Q: What sequence folds into this?
């Protein structure tokens, strides 16, 4: 399976997405990746987790309106990261597939929201073509989930977005590559791909 999608909105820096449920070590990975690339004189703009800025209820209390807010804010943050300064690459710590996967969970319990959720998916498809490469980090069952005001320390809830993420990636037409479990191997894999994209 190819690991990238051709971006239809040139010119722009390369944009890579690390997607996955929690906890998978995505934030640690993205920070280490940024540090390594900057040591190689590759300018990195990092888009951090958008849900941490959301003023609306999330997780089990999330609604289609909250998902719409998250999608709009994610697109804004990615566009801003690509246009402020002169980054060689934009690294996204989660993105639209993560938002859509959580939104799919809502449809199971609220079938009357189906039309609104279908519209959110349709809105997201075109923007997802702007990701140059997408990597999927599987949830690590051995890692504890720390409740931090956004995450729920609930293994049962964790499994639902994890399973729906694969569905979201397929429905959004996103080619992706699964990451190895070790952080160092993950960083090396993505860094090599980014170096090839920026030819350094």
A:
């Amino acid at each position: 399976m190819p690991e990238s999608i051709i971006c239809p909105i040139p010119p722009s820096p390369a944009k890579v997405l690390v997607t996955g449920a929690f906890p998978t070590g995505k934030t640690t990975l993205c920070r280490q990746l940024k540090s390594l690339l900057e040591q190689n004189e590759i300018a990195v703009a990092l888009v951090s987790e958008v849900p941490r800025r959301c003023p609306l209820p999330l997780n089990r209390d999330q609604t289609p309106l909250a998902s719409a807010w998250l999608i709009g804010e994610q697109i804004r943050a990615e566009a801003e990261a690509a246009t402020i300064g002169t980054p060689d690459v934009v690294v996204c710590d989660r993105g639209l597939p993560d938002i859509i996967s959580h939104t799919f969970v809502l449809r199971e319990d609220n079938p009357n929201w189906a039309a609104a959720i279908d519209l959110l998916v349709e809105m997201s498809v075109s923007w997802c073509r702007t990701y140059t490469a997408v990597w999927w980090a599987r949830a690590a069952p051995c890692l504890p989930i720390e409740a931090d005001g956004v995450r729920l320390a609930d293994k049962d809830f964790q499994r639902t977005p994890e399973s729906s993420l694969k569905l979201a990636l397929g429905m959004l037409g996103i080619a992706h590559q699964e990451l190895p479990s070790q952080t160092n191997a993950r960083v090396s894999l993505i860094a090599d791909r980014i170096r090839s994209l920026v030819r350094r």
The mean pLDDT is 86. The longest helix spans residues 64-83. The radius of gyration is 16 Å. Residues 88 and 198 are 7 Å apart (CA to CA).
